[in-house]
Amino acid sequence: MLTFTIRRLVLAVPTLLFISLVIFLLLELAPGDPMAQVPLTVPPEVKEKMREALGLGQPLHIRFWKWIVQFFWIEPQVLIDHYFGTTLSEGKLRVISWQTRSPVMDIVVQRIPQTLWVVGTAYVVAIIIALPIGIYSAYRQYSWFDQLGTFVSMVGFSVPPFFSGVLVIVIFSVQLGWFPSIYDTTHVVNSWDSFVYQLKQMIMPVMVLALQITAQLSRFMRASMLDNLNQDYVRTARAKGLSEYVVVMVHVLRNSMIPVVTVIALGIPSIFGGAIITEQVFKVNGIGQLLIGALQANDLPMVQTLTFIFAVLIVLFNLIADVLYGILDPRIRYD
Amino acid sequence: MTELSQPQPTKPPRSQWYDVWDQFRQHKGAMMGATLFFLIVAAVYLGPYLWDLDPTKTAIRERNQGPSLAHPFGTDQLGRDLLARMMAGGATSVSVGITAMLLALFLGSFVGVLAGFFRKLDGPLMRLTDLFLALPLLPLLLVMMLLFREPLNAAFGLERGIFILIVSAIGITSWMPTARIVRGDVLALKEREFVLAARSIGTTNTRLITRHILPNVLSPIMVSATLGIATAIITESALSFLGLGFPPDFPTWGRLLFDGVDYLQQFPERVIWPGMAISLTVLSVNYLGDGLRDALDPRIRGR
C-alpha cells in the first residue's frame, strides 16, 4: 500500500507538470494583448518597457520555467515565512497578477475562505441528506419513496445551477423577501443577529449546490446498497438472528460505504469547478468569481495559477480516493 | 412430448432490436422522456415555420409586454417576440448539444476502440484519457472560449465561428467517459470466439473493427450519446450564462436566461421560460438514457 501511494505520488508530478504546460501553452496562444488597455498616446518604446516589466520579453520556455520556479519554489517559501517568520523569500519575484500588480497567491488566499464556507457547507449538507435517502430507497426498492427519490435526483441532475439559483432568488428573495439575493462577504459575525443574517445569506447558495450533490450521492448510495443487500453475507447475518437494524446499518452500510466514500472524495474538486456558476449567480466573491474576473481582464498569470490550482485539487483527490479505496477494502490492494 | 411433434418455432424470428424496443416501452419514464424530447426538438425546428415572427426584429413601442395573443410569451426589453426567440434559441441549443455529442462520441469511440483493440496503444491512450480527466474542464472551457473567439470569428463569420468553437470545445472536453467504457467492452469482446473465427478466415483489422467490434459496442455508445446531449446542452447554456457563449443578438436558451436575469424583479417569467426549457430537455434526455440503458442491458431485459 505504501509503495503504491509513493508510486502514485511520483506519477502525479509529471502529470501536473504536463497539465501546467498545457495550460501555459493554451494561454500562450491567446491573441489577447495585455497592453490592449494602455492608451494609444503611450509611445511604443514605453510600451515595450512595460511588456518587459510584465516578463513578456523573454522566450516561451524561459517564461514557463520562471512560472514553475515561482509557483513551486518561491510560493512555498512565502508560506514558510508567513508561518515561521523567516525571510527565505525576501526579494524574490512571486507570481504577480497583471490586474492588481500584487502577488496572485495573496489574492487567492483572500478569496478561498468564502468559497470554502459556501461550498464546504453545501457539501456537508448534501452528504447528510443524501446518505439516508440512498439507504432507505435501496432498502425499500421500487417503493413510492424510492420512486420519489429517483425523480428528485433526476431533477437535481437536470436543473442547471444557473437556473435553480435564479429560481430560488425569484421565489425567496423577490417574491417572499426572506433571504438576501446577494452574498455579502464583508459581513462579520459578532452577535446573534449577525449570525442569523449570515445563515440567511448562506441558505440559498448552499441549497442550490447541495441539490446537485445530493442527486449524485444518493444515486450512488442507493446503487451501492442494492449491490450489497443481495449478497450471501446478508442472508447469513439475518439467519443468525441479527436485528434488521444491525443487518442494514452495520453490515450492509459499512460495505456499501466503500465506493461512496471514494465518490465523495472524487467529487470535491469538481465542486470547486461547479461552484463557479453558483458564485456568479449569488455574487459570492470566491475563487470561481476571481477566475471569471481574471479571464475577462486578460490577467494571464492569475488564470494560469487558478486553473492549475484546480488541476492540483483534481489530481490530489484522485490520489486520495485511490488510497482510500485500498485502505477501506482489504480485497483491493494495488501491490 | 408435444413440443417435439411441432419442431417449427411458432413465432417468427425477431431481431435483438425488437426485444430492446419491447423492454424500452415498458419503462414509463423513458417513453415519456422520449416523447417529450421529440416534441421539444420538433417545436424548436418546425415551430418557426408556424410562428414566423423574426426573433431579432426589434419593436421598441411593443417592449416589455406581458403574454397576449400576438405574443404568447410576451416581448423583451427591445420588443422582440419571446416565443420566436425561445424557438430560435432552442434550435441553437439543441443543435449545439447534438453536434457536440456526436463529436465527443466519435472521439471517444475512436480512442476507446484503438486502446482496446491494439495493445500497444492501450497504455499511452489511457494515460492521455487520465490526463484529460485531470484537467479542470469548466475553467479550461472558459479559457478556450475567451482565447479563440476572435480568430475563429474572423475565419468563419460571427455565428458559425462561435458555433464551431463551442461545439469543438465541448466535444474535446467530454469524450473521456465514452472512451473508457468503449475500451472496457472492446477488451472483453476481443477475446470472444467470433472475433477469433473472423480473424482465422483472414479478416483485416479494419474490417474486424467495423463489422464485428463496433456493432457490439453500440449499446454503451448509445447510452453515452443520450447523456452526452444532456451535458452538452447544460455546458453550452452555462457558457452563455457566464457571458462567454454566443453573442447577444444571437439567442440561445442560456443567453435568454442570462438576459432575463437583469429584469428578474419585474419579469421573472423571462428567466423561467428558458430555464424550464433547458431543464425539461435535459430531464427528458436523462430519462431517455436511463430507459435505454435498461433496455440495452440483456441481464435486465425480459424481466
Output mean pLDDT of chain B. 81
Which class of secondary structure composition applies to the elements of chain B? mainly alpha
Mean pLDDT of chain A, as a whole number?
80
By CATH, the topology of the domain at 108-296 in chain A is MetI-like fold
Strand percentage of chain A = under 5%
Largest interface: A-B, 44 and 43 residues
**How far apart, in Å, are the first and last alpha carbons of chain A?**
6 Å
Number of strand elements of chain A: 0
Topology, number of strands of chain B: 0
How does the overall form of chain B come out from the CA principal axes? globular
What summary fits the major beta sheet of chain B?
none
The CATH architecture name of the domain at 108-296 in chain A reads Orthogonal Bundle
Radius of gyration of chain B: 24 Å
**Count of alpha and pi helical runs of chain B:** 13
What is the helical fraction of chain A, as a range of percent?
A: over 70%
What attributes does this structure have?
heterodimer; A: 335 residues; mainly alpha; MetI-like fold; 11 helices; 75% helix; 0% strand; B: 303 residues; globular
What does this structure look like?
The complex is a heterodimer of chains A (about 325) and B (about 300). Chain A is an all-alpha fold and about 325 residues long. Chain A has a domain at about 110-295: Orthogonal Bundle (MetI-like fold). Chain A has helices at about 1-30, 45-55, 60-85, 105-140, 145-160, 160-175, 190-230, 230-240, 245-280, 285-295, 300-330. In chain A, helix 5 (about 145-160) crosses helix 7 and helix 10 packs antiparallel against helix 11. The longest helix of chain A has about 40 residues, at about 245-280. The radius of gyration of chain A is 25 Å and the shape is globular. Chain A starts with a helix and ends in a 7-residue tail after the last helix. With about 300 residues, chain B is mainly alpha-helical. Chain B is built from 13 helices and no strands. In chain B, helix 4 crosses helix 7 (about 160-170), helix 4 crosses helix 12 (about 255-260) and helix 6 (about 135-155) packs antiparallel against helix 7 (about 160-170). The two termini of chain B are about 30 Å apart. The chains are: A mainly alpha (about 325), B mainly alpha (about 300). The interface of A and B includes residues 27, 32, 291, 295 and 315 of A.
